[in-house]
Amino acid sequence: MAINREAAWVAVGKQDDFMPRVGRVILINGVEVAVFRTTEAVYAIENRSPHPKGGPLSEGIVSGHYLYDPLHDWKIDLRDGCVQAPDTGQARTFAVRVEEDSVYIAVM
Amino acid sequence: MKRKLQLVVIGNGMAGMNAVEQLMKLTDSCDITVIGQEPHPNYNRIMLSYVLDGSKTMDDIVINPRAWYDEAGITLHTGTTATRVDTTRRVVVMDNGHEVGYDRVIIATGSTPFILPVPGADKQGVIGFRSIEDCDRMMEAAKLYKKAAVIGGGLLGLEAAKGLVQLGMDVTVVHLPDFLMERQLDEKAARMLQTELERQGLKFALGKQTQELIGGERVEGLRFSDGTELEAEFVVMAVGIRPNVELARASELAVNRGIVVDDYIRTSAPDVYAVGECTEHRGVCYGLVAPLFEQGAVLAKGLAGVETKPYEGSVCSTKLKVSGVDVFSTGLFLETPECVCVTFHDAWKGTYKKIVLKDNVIAGAVLFGNIDDASKLERLVKQGAEMTEELYNELTGAGGCCGTKANAAADFADDDIVCGCNGVTKKMIVDAITEQGLTTLDEVKACTGASRSCGGCKPLVEQLLQHVLGDGFEAGGSKQGICGCTTMSRDEIVAAIREKGLRSTKEIMNVLDWKQEEGCSKCRPALNYYLGMIWPQTYQDEKESRFVNERMNANIQKDGTYTVVPRMYGGMTTPAELKKIADVSLKYNVPLVKMTGGQRIDIVGVKKEDLPSVWEELDMPSGYAYAKSLRTVKTCVGATYCRFGTQDSMGMGALLERKFERIDYPAKVKFAVNGCPRNCAESCTKDIGIVGNDGGWEIYIGGNGGIKARLADLLCKVKTDEELIEITAAVLQHYRETANYLERTSDWVERIGLEHIHKTTVEDAEGRKQLVARMDEALSSRSEEPWQQVISDKGLRDKMFGKVVFQQ
């Protein structure tokens, strides 16, 4: 049997379900995903800081496509999850599609 | 594939790890194993004084956390002692019987404090000052004992003594010579230093030789050679260090006082190197940090096969890390017949400068009070610069007012160390500036680590920025903005908001030309506060510009759960409320219920999605334990029940809490109200502390019991409750209008001055009325109780706290 490696798109709600620049947690197949609706787009990132001490990301302050880790103030690019200098690391991100006001997140 | 070189480093301290770091920057051809005796990752030993005075924690001074070793592919053995290097079999032998083969070995075993061999030195309560464990012991001792003695008036001794004074001990520094720091200072500077330290609470017993430590099992005092005695329940020995050479001896290496190394940091055995305080180079054992970096650089290059200049010894410079005392010395500092000295002593300003010339070459210097020229002089001494008319004018300020001040850092060689704490070279900083387009000190700090620790090299880093960027850099920090997004100061921004009528963070950032369009985690909360303070009636608070705790109306914990603290006005509750708290805690299965320092109950470990239900079922107002707002008013029982009480402290406390709660302040605000001068509710450590007496109230302000403790200052005494409320309102509003965001009243009072606050809020009756009117305006437009707001707004509740679950 062929294993389907295509991403599955999960409809997680309407755009309006997400307050501008305030994160919201969606649990998809046991993975906590923090969803942010910024002024530019909607982003989805695993709700776990790449900082060695971990912690959630959903409550961070959002600026453009950057997120400031609420517990450690690391600056993280929401587009690719990359931690900005001088700190290093990467959070897992998920593809997002917005269609007719509905938000879909890609899960493997 | 080429086999990697097996490098074993014995010692996990600054010297060994710095050499490793420098090596890894040059080559990746080594497999590195580190054997460390201490059970923790390596830390910055020169920062121990900061741990002691409480300004830094152990975590702050860790240089390389364990993860760093993993990432770098270094095998780390902690809690293991290497006992011997077997140079014939080329293995390092450890105390657990294991052996590690090597191609090259670096011995970096460091040093231990020298304990005077006098009777009683082995008594309980006698320690050295060298490790994090010593810091812990000193902090423990300060809790149990009062009188301490520090033997040794050198650098380390004075830092230890100051630390103990700050921990509340009565400390006497015992020193054999007649003046302090005789190995770094001349008598004049030493006397000035002593006077300053005496002002800070240290006591001195100079010219005293300790003959015996007296007491029973625990030390009780010192007996000196002149027969006099000093009482002491705790003794710190800081009389010098002894290189750790046991391993080198067991390995049959050449050892004098330290492990003998040549100009390429090699020991007497092939492929065995030694670096740092365990070594002796050209007859000198160093106990400072700069030589360790310089040796490390030569060693790393040697190992990597990069051409290197030989190590020819270090010029030692010293700065004392004691707050409020600026002392510096470098090179020669004593007058000898063959030396000429240039000296300036300004008794009024308390400054002293001495430059020592030998054959007209600048050979050393001592500075006290003003150490602006420290890095320049250090540099000149290292270079062996000749004194010229021009240099003289520059160093003495003679010959005109506005001569071009030379840029000392520009003269540095590429691999000269700028930041001694973190081993950052000039080249690393210059590269970071040019390659990453850095323009501010903070950016350099963030990218390279330079000036991240003690901050002593800040002027040098600024000079480098100036040097690289030319006019593009505005020095002095005067043009440092509130964050990286702007160059504007708090006052300029607040003025612009008023003058230009700016109404949202977005508008501020547009009009004032923010570098990052939507700001950052530093400026957004600050601007949100300033806007609310300036336009109390009309500003629409931006939830998305609030820190997590203020946005969620609860305190986030490290695991992402929250704490809930319900309001209890004046610290008073009822059996019915307690029952509700108990019921809710049981129902939501919280792991912990705790009393807070402000007389409240803290429900710890509530899940985010449970917060609204917990609030709803408690049916109590928010205690604002998460906010830059009025947190708590702590009260004593007062006249209502207490036999000593002269005023109704509980009633007044609850009244003040109701009156001033639920508006934003620059930082958290805590009150205490006491019914009598016994002060059971501890007014002295509160932002506003009120003490009742028979004839009225005393108002104290600016107290703080936190990281930097400060006793509150008496602002005034008042006769009536009305006056008390009015002056409190005026002080709080004045604080709201003039403090920097996040600035506590303790810092605010020191910055703008008690006298000024007294004038504005007590003497100037008209000004006070206006302040009170503006406070009333803010209070009248305060928002709805925040927990209620979430409970009653289904949409908000779901969007902010709801958890959506998808399962496929």
TrEMBL record, chain B:
A Pfam family per the record: NIR_SIR_ferr
Cofactor: [2Fe-2S] cluster; [4Fe-4S] cluster; siroheme; FAD
Domain Nitrite/Sulfite reductase ferredoxin-like: 557-619
Keyword DNA repair found: no
Record domain Nitrite/sulphite reductase 4Fe-4S: where: 627-764
Domain FAD/NAD(P)-binding: 6-279
UniProt keyword terms in alphabetical order: 2Fe-2S, 4Fe-4S, FAD, Flavoprotein, Heme, Iron, Iron-sulfur, Metal-binding, Nitrate assimilation, Oxidoreductase
Domain BFD-like [2Fe-2S]-binding stretches: 417-466, 482-531
InterPro entries tied to this protein: BFD-like_2Fe2S-bd_dom (IPR007419), BFD-like_2Fe2S-bd_dom_sf (IPR041854), FAD/NAD-bd_sf (IPR036188), FAD/NAD-binding_dom (IPR023753), FAD/NAD-linked_Rdtase_dimer_sf (IPR016156), NasD-like (IPR052034), NiRdtase/SiRdtase_haem-b_fer (IPR005117), Nit/Sulf_reduc_fer-like_dom_sf (IPR036136)
Source organism superkingdom: Bacteria
Keyword Aminoacyl-tRNA synthetase: no
Cross-referenced CDD domains: NirB_Fer2_BFD-like_1 (cd19943), NirB_Fer2_BFD-like_2 (cd19944)
SUPFAM superfamilies, sorted: FAD/NAD(P)-binding domain (SSF51905), Nitrite and sulphite reductase 4Fe-4S domain-like (SSF56014), Nitrite/Sulfite reductase N-terminal domain-like (SSF55124)
Metabolic or biological pathway: Nitrogen metabolism; nitrate reduction (assimilation)
Stretches assigned to the NADH-rubredoxin oxidoreductase C-terminal domain: 317-384
Family in the record: Belongs to the nitrite and sulfite reductase 4Fe-4S domain family.
UniProt cross-references to NCBIfam families, sorted A to Z: nitri_red_nirB
Protein name: Nitrite reductase large subunit NirB
Organism: Paenibacillus profundus
